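Anyone up for a design puzzle?
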């Protein structure tokens, strides 16, 4: 130790080493205390501990009295061995960066375990070679920069080989950077590669190469080591802040996705309830109407036969004007009643066909039948205000849920009709496009505002006034088309109308969950 007049004193050239040691060990301690459960922070703390031992050895070297410099070579050898093990703790840090943890007993990847074993073997070999050879030729002293070990060419070659081996370890970081999709992780791994290479570069140049060339500045390496320790601490802290930001954004995105899922579930529930209600309503209406309708039709047939019999019995009175007038009135009444009964019966058949009450869930379906049924129902609802033009092409049968596809037709056609304030026209075109059926429904209505177009399939979005169930038609239709592996696209211009294009595959199969 250095004493002057019986009092310990610290040479000026050793002060920087002491400061560097305090900084490195301090950053390691802070990192460990802050992140005991964080493998990266713990690995960095271990790295700093090895660095600190290296720095302590250097401080001990600088405190040797120049007049008693016999132990300097022994201390320099200890510092060099500490430098070797600093490289090993750097490997542990790389394992932590790449998600393999710093705890080598938990290495799971076969390649990582093999590399770790080879690294330890090479490290042990280098230490043995260093110990058995006179690698430290001497330790020079300079009154400004203190002691600097001078190594022989064999030691320099050994360090270069070890440096290249460490670069192979950096390849792990490069691979991890290539695999990750996180921008923050990519930047963090890139910054760590720079720091790790700088550590090795400074160790090689300042402690090995320059002293060999006669530049006794190895002590300056610890100024850079302290700066690099700050650099590592900073990039770790910045990365963890960015992780918090990414986590916050990810949490927000998760909430949005869950909200969309809830809305989708709500839409499916509404869809299911609407279809169930429609089926129950149609079944009730068909039953309630068909029963009296059958009775009325039967009695109308009986009445017509009775009237025909009466006319045959009063054939002699046919020249009587009153009798002839009465018979004509009866015939006209019969005609009106027959037409009315026929229209009611046709309407009931259309309703039953539209709801597909007597058919299986998934089956091959003629989409033209569903379109015709939907058009007839809407025509009666609108009273002929809107002209519906059919331009049907040749279509093949489609494997689908007919009831749900009819609901899509009803939703889209109902929107088209409601988009026309007065009289107008809705044109329906059908065609084949290879293995898909294409249905285009175009209206001459008011159109949809441009800012609403990207949102029209969201639940609750409507171009009309808010009311119960508004804004669900297209959302339900979108879900139905998705289930059928189809597409629904909307193009619209204000004042010109809207065109909705439906595409359904011929060989669409029901999802596995159905």
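Challenge accepted. My sequence:
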């Amino acid at each position: 130790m250095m004493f002057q007049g019986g009092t310990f004193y610290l040479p000026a050239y050793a002060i920087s080493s002491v400061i560097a040691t305090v900084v490195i060990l301090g950053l390691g301690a802070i990192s460990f205390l802050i992140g005991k459960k964080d493998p990266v922070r713990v690995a960095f703390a271990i790295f700093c501990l090895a660095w600190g031992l290296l720095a302590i050895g250097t401080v001990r070297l600088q405190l040797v009295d120049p007049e008693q410099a016999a132990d300097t070579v022994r201390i320099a050898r200890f510092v060099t061995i500490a430098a070797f093990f600093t490289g090993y703790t750097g490997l542990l840090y790389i394992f932590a960066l790449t998600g393999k943890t710093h705890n080598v007993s938990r290495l799971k990847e076969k390649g990582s375990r093999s590399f770790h074993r080879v690294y330890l073997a090479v490290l042990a070999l280098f230490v043995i070679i260093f110990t058995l050879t006179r690698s430290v030729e001497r330790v020079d002293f300079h009154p400004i920069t203190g002691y600097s070990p001078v190594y022989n060419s064999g030691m320099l070659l050994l360090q270069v080989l070890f440096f290249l081996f460490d670069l192979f370890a950096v390849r792990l970081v490069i691979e991890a950077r290539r695999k990750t999709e996180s921008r923050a992780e990519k930047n963090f791994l890139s910054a760590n590669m720079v720091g790790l290479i700088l550590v090795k570069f400074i160790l090689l140049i300042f402690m090995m190469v320059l002293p060999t060339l006669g530049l006794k500045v190895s002590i300056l390496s610890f100024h850079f080591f302290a700066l690099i320790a700050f650099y590592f601490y900073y990039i770790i802290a910045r990365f963890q802040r960015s992780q918090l930001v990414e986590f916050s954004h990810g949490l927000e995105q998760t909430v949005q996705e869950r909200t969309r899922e809830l809305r989708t579930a709500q839409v499916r529930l509404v869809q299911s309830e609407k279809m169930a209600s429609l089926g129950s309503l149609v079944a009730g209406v068909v039953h309630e109407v068909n029963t009296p309708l059958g009775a009325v039709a039967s009695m109308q047939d009986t009445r017509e036969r009775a009237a025909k019999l009466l006319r045959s019995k009063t054939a002699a009175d046919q020249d009587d004007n009153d009798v002839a007038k009465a018979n004509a009135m009866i015939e006209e009444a019969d005609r009106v009643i027959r037409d009315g009964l026929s229209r009611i019966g046709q309407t009931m058949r259309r309703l039953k066909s539209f709801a597909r009450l007597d058919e299986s869930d998934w089956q091959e379906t003629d989409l033209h039948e569903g379109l015709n049924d939907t058009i007839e129902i809407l025509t009666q609802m609108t009273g002929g205000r809107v002209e519906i033009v059919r331009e049907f092409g040749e279509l093949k049968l489609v494997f689908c849920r007919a009831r749900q596809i009819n609901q899509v037709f009803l939703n889209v056609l109902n929107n088209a009709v409601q988009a026309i304030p007065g009289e107008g026209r809705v044109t329906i075109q059908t065609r084949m496009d290879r293995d898909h059926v294409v249905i285009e429904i175009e209206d001459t209505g008011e159109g949809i505002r441009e800012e609403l177009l990207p949102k029209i399939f969201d639940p609750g979005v409507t171009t009309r006034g808010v009311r119960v169930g508004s804004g669900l038609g297209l959302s339900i239709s979108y879900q139905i088309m998705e289930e059928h592996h189809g597409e629904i696209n909307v193009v619209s211009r204000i004042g010109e109308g809207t065109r909705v294009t439906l595409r359904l595959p011929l060989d669409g199969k029901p999802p596995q969950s159905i």
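A detail worth pointing out: The two ends are 84 Å apart (CA to CA).
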